[in-house]
C-alpha cells in the first residue's frame, strides 16, 4: 500500500490521463469511479492495477480487495481524478479486456452501428443486461466503450455480459452462418413492424447511428428490417429508447 497526497505525483498524473482514449489504449487500462462500479468490478473478479481511495472511502468498501494494490489518496487528489461534481472518492484502474475474435454461434445480441452518444451506448448496454441478453457488439466507429460517460451510464453492466468492438459485417456473417436472425432497426414505414415479429430464441438486433440510422451495408446484410410504429407527431425515437423497446420485446 502507498499513500499519495499530491496531484502532481507521477502516478496520479498518468491515471488522470485515462480520461483520454489515446492513453487508455496505450496503457491497456481504464478508470472507473464510485462505490457501485468498484464493487461490481471486485465481485466480477476483474483484473485491476490500482484501487485508489481516501481512508474514509476504503473503510466503507464492502468487497474484499488486494491490499498491495491499494493507493490511499486525499480529497484533493480524489477531486482531481473525478469526472463528476460530487466524487465518492474511490477509483480503480481496470484492465481492458478485448478479445481479438469471438464465436457468434449462440444467444441474443445487440449490435451498435456507429453510435456517437456515450449516454445512449451505456444505456443500451445496461438495458441489454437487464433484459438478459448475452452481449453487445460495438462497431469500430461507435463511441469508445471505456469513455467515462459510457461507464457511468452502464452502471456496472460491463461486468455482466460480453462486450466487444468488432466489424459488424463480420459479426453478422457469423450470426447468419449459425442461423441466428439479424434484424436491423430502421426508420422506414415500409419495413416490417415490431409487433409483427415472432419471438425467437436467438437473434442479433442492430441499432443505428442517432443521426443517420443503420448503414446501408449493414442493412443489406440483415435478414429483416424492423420499424417501431410512430403513433404521434414525433419524427423518431431516441436511440436508447427505441433499443429498449425492441430489446424487451425480444427478451
Automatic annotation (TrEMBL):
In this record, what's one Pfam family?
A: MRM3-like_sub_bind
The protein's name is: RNA methyltransferase
Domain RNA 2-O ribose methyltransferase substrate binding, residue spans:
31-100
One GO term of the biological process aspect: RNA processing
Query: Record's SUPFAM superfamilies?
Result: alpha/beta knot (SSF75217), L30e-like (SSF55315)
Q: Which UniProt keywords apply?
A: Methyltransferase, Transferase
Spell out the molecular function terms from Gene Ontology. RNA binding; RNA methyltransferase activity
Q: Tell whether Methyltransferase is among the UniProt keywords.
A: yes
* InterPro entries assigned to the protein according to its UniProt record, in alphabetical order: Alpha/beta_knot_MTases, MRM3-like_sub_bind, Ribosomal_eL30-like_sf, rRNA_Methyltransferase, SpoU_MeTrfase, SpoU_subst-bd, tRNA_m1G_MTases_N
Q: Which GO terms describe its cellular component?
A: cytoplasm
Q: What family, per the record?
A: Belongs to the class IV-like SAM-binding methyltransferase superfamily. RNA methyltransferase TrmH family.
Amino acid at each position: 500500500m502507498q499513500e499519495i497526497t499530491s496531484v502532481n505525483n507521477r502516478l496520479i498524473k498518468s491515471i488522470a490521463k485515462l480520461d483520454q482514449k489515446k492513453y487508455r489504449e496505450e496503457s491497456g487500462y481504464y478508470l472507473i469511479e464510485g462505490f457501485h462500479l468498484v464493487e461490481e468490478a471486485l465481485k466480477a473478479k476483474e483484473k485491476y492495477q490500482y484501487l485508489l481511495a481516501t481512508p474514509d472511502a476504503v473503510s466503507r468498501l464492502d468487497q474484499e480487495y488486494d491490499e498491495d494494490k491499494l493507493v490511499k489518496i486525499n480529497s484533493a487528489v480524489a477531486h482531481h481524478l473525478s469526472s463528476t461534481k460530487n466524487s465518492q472518492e474511490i477509483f480503480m484502474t481496470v484492465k481492458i479486456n478485448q478479445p481479438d475474435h469471438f464465436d457468434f454461434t449462440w444467444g441474443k445480441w445487440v449490435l451498435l452501428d456507429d453510435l456517437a452518444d456515450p449516454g445512449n451506448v451505456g444505456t443500451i448496454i445496461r438495458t441489454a443486461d437487464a433484459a438478459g441478453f448475452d452481449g453487445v457488439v460495438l462497431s469500430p466507429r461507435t463511441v469508445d466503450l471505456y469513455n467515462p460517460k459510457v461507464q457511468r451510464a452502464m452502471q456496472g453492466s460491463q461486468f455482466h455480459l460480453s462486450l466487444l468492438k468488432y466489424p459488424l459485417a463480420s459479426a453478422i456473417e457469423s450470426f447468419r452462418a449459425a442461423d441466428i436472425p439479424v434484424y436491423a432497426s430502421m426508420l422506414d414505414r415500409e419495413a416490417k413492424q415490431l409487433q409483427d415479429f415472432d419471438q425467437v430464441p436467438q437473434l442479433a438486433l442492430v441499432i443505428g447511428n442517432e443521426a443517420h440510422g443503420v448503414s446501408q451495408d449493414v442493412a443489406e446484410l440483415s435478414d429483416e428490417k424492423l420499424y417501431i410504429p410512430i403513433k404521434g407527431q414525433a419524427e423518431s425515437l431516441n436511440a436508447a429508447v427505441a433499443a429498449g423497446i425492441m430489446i424487451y420485446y425480444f427478451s
